[in-house]
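Our collaborator T.R. sent over the components below with a one-line note: 'Predict the complex.' Nothing else. No constraints on interfaces, no templates requested, no preferences about which chain binds where. So this is a plain run: every listed entity goes in together, and whatever single assembly comes back becomes the starting point for the next discussion.
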Amino acid sequence: MTRAPAQSQAENSALPAAEIGGETRIVVANQWQLIWWKFRKHRLAMAAGVFTILLYAVAVFAEFFAPYSAGAYSAAHTFIPPQSIQLLQRTENGWRFYPHVYGFKVQVDPESYKRTYVLDEAITYPVGLFVRGESYKLWGLFATDRHLVGAAQFGDPVYLLGTDRLGRDVLSRTIYGTRVSMSVGLVGVGLSLLLGIILGGISGFYGGMIDNLIQRSIEILRSLPTIPLWMGLSAAIPLTWPPVRVYFAITVLLSLIGWTALAREVRGRFLSLKTEDFVIAARLDGVRELPIILRHMAPSMTSHIIASVTLAIPGMILAETALSFLGIGLRPPVVSWGVLLQEAQNVRSIATAPWLLFPGLAVVSSVLALNFLGDGLRDAADPYQT
Amino acid sequence: MNRNTELEGVPQDMRPLLDVRGLHMRFPIKRGILRRTVGFVNAVTDVGFSILPGGTLSLVGESGCGKTTTGRCIARVYKPSAGQIIYQAEAEQSIDLAELDNRELRPFRREIRMIFQDPFSSLNPRLPILQIIGESLKVNRVASGSELEDRVASLLRRVGLRPEYIRRYPHAFSGGERQRIGIARALALNPRLIVADEAVSALDVSVQAQILNLLQDLQEEFNLAYLFIAHDLSVVEHISHRVAVMYVGKIVELADTETLFANPLHPYTEALLSAVPKPDPRLRNRGVRIRLEGEVADPSNPPDGCYFHPRCPYAQERCRQEEPAVREIDEKHWVACHFAEELELRGFEAIGATLGATLER
Amino acid sequence: MQPIHTRLDDNDAQDDEVLLDVKDVKTHFFTDEGVVKAVDGVNLSLKRGQTLCVVGESGCGKSVTARSILRIVPPPGEIVSGAINFRQRDGGTIDLATLNPKGREIRRIRGGEISMIFQEPMSSLSPVHTIGSQIIEAIQLHLPVSKGEARKQAVSMLDLVGIPRPGEQLDAYSFELSGGMRQRAMIAIALACEPQLLIADEPTTALDVTTQANILDLIRDLQQASGMSVLFITHDLGVVAEIADEVVVMYLGRDVESGDVDSIFHDPKHPYTRALLQSIPRYDSRQSRKLYSIKGTVPHPFDRPSGCPFHPRCDDFIAGTCNTIDPARQLISPGHSVRCLLYADANAGEQVPVNSAGTQDMDMSN
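Returned assembly:
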């Protein structure tokens, strides 16, 4: 029963037999696979991720998704309430599949001259998918006139989410607003990220006086009240600037504050990774500084940074919306959610045309989706924690 | 502890591989918005020892005694504040590692390697084993491509892991297996000295025995020298040829393992030995118990005189005022205590920690 | 895979002296990846005034066993079967396994009758309350005393656990104390209501040897003074040798061997116990130089081996038997039981002679 203490090398090896075969996929999984597997378990974040992808798809292909162009108007159809799509139509032979919306009659109140629309079930306008409509050039390149959804016959008044005071389609405008609002978030965060990584990296890598200087300036920047600062700065944007330039000026403005949080995140990670055993081990292996940062430190940070970036986008979207709503951000004819909401900025619209608030719903859902997505990413960012 | 004089006239092959003299390491304490230095933590103060080729020197002491910092100075994770780390390079000449900058250290980093305590944080979770072990081979242009894979595979085999594991990531391994990977990484460039910082402390008893055996096998096979940092005295007793006991950044006693355990000359060593749990219930309440009162001194504000005097059961007036020098009391037995000659201290056997009737059946 | 042996019957469960009797408790964790059988049939019995050490390597379920007793197993963990009979101060016996883990009954027992101390005192002491207020709270929760009276008791508690200047330290926060002092403060809180049972989960693992020795002395002294029982969880066999009266050795959620400390150390039966004992470095093991080591590692909880869970690592493995039959607990001698097929046909006290070379050829499956 007693064994000679000297064991052969093979017997001494630390091999549980069960590890061979079976679940081998996980043992060779790299960090992105592990993150993906962990993220996949987070149902809400998965759903939010799909929704976010859809939102950006809508933003990219806005011309295709929107039934009308952003500027199209019809003086005859102002303040039309949303028309609901009817899928079936009653005929003599029973029901048939015929997607359509009902037309409407205009009634003018003889005393107040107020126009009200009354549903007229006698008139139907067929609705279809991939219909021909206004022609456009997608990204200025591909000329086409196909739209995802719209009146099957070009020219029929079909307004699924109603129209505004100039008879512009709210749905189309909200879709075009998605492009601007969602991209403001992305571009703004991109700029913040650039500043954050460079300044945070310098701060964490060099330490000492430089670190001190950067950290103190971050603290000062963060102590400024943001809304008045943005207001002051955006008020300084000349009215004569073309819309595209205003758009970029606003994103730069937003990222001016946004980078500080990311810089802190990067610096903190840098500092803690610098003393991590595996980084020391790499240094002792003779690896030079730059490869240590790129091969050993950066991959440990990217997943966390992606998560923080996702969580930073909603802030940008809200900031843009707030500024535009106050009339000091983007201005018409640029269409953003904030600009659209500015139109709904009075009691009358809420009382008589509540559908004008639809862009607000878009803001809420996109912000929520990005937050859920960011939360999920943050939880999955470090798959090695147990 | 300056013993360099003894080295003159010693033949080449008997010379120590590493001779540490007067090593100091202090870390600044920074406070306030401007991060001004308001003081220093003297983590290591005037430490000296030597390690022979193929020998094992252990550093023991309570947490915060500076043993890890000493090890990291030797591996040049830190640049020591003062002192010399004389390394006997293979090319006949000896070099003071303490003075070299990162570029000059490069060739020696291949020969002096380190094994870390935490098998989890010491392997980059985002790289496969091939790259973790092969990193040093690649960086030093020793091997690449399929040759690199072959070398890593044979290293894995040497430490008792299957070569097929080469593409796996660290998360697929248990603590003991990870420690084997860490050892393989240390072995990659045929080192001569390995600093093993608490290399078995985080492991379970059975795995610890596997790793200790592996370390001993490797020592015999490659004539490796170890600087073994540990707090577990039974492990230290098992693996080391010589032992240095540290207290608040200083070496208080250094001797051959058997001498130190049988005949300690410093009261702190005696207390440490006495505190080791006796591995046999029949030894309970046998022999003497020495229990230390109070806490380890604060290295940023150490007491006057002998750092150990507030806790020493034998302390006298002289201990409170005069700092004891390290003296060679017996041959190759150094101790820093004013009363080393007078005190009758008890070794492991007198304490009753050894087994009368052993468990070997 | 039916156990082929007569099951061990603990008659001493009726014994007045038995304070805690854990019977075949199974605590499983229902995770997304599958069921982790952290504790899969553990038995232990602790007498009044005694110290029972539960010893095993990481992942053997010793901590979960302790938490199961106090019903503080974190979700998704659940006790799926078994009984935890605890004799209360009033003489009645209660099965803790059946209580609602959030109910009043178990809360009265926690702290009042059973207290627990942990490996890392920092995480179980509140950083925003002083040590004193935490002890006073513990006292007032379970005893009908005034605040002043409780404070006086708290000072004497701190004094009892050897904290210097107890009057001042009462107003200290946990982060102001050193590791050893924190552990003492936690013991003071745990003992504030004079529990019948103290569960200590690796209380000295994070400490230096010198401090560990002091804490072990303290627990031993307090136990002698108060007559409480101690359930001590540890992986360190040296600590076991120092303080245990009884020992339970665990492997993969099972008690593989239990008995009094002397028979575990000097007459170990289970191959795992023997291997553990042989793999600790000892003062006089220098001659042999090489330590005995158990081959392989503790398997992953999802890859639980069939039959005896230790068989892949066992030197006395009998092919065809150990990997198919799940060994039942068996009494080797009074108070000494083992789960091992080597002793399958041996009645109490007798031992099957096995030589390591011959085991492979013996056919015991018939």
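Summary for T.R.: Chain C is about 30% helix and 20% strand.
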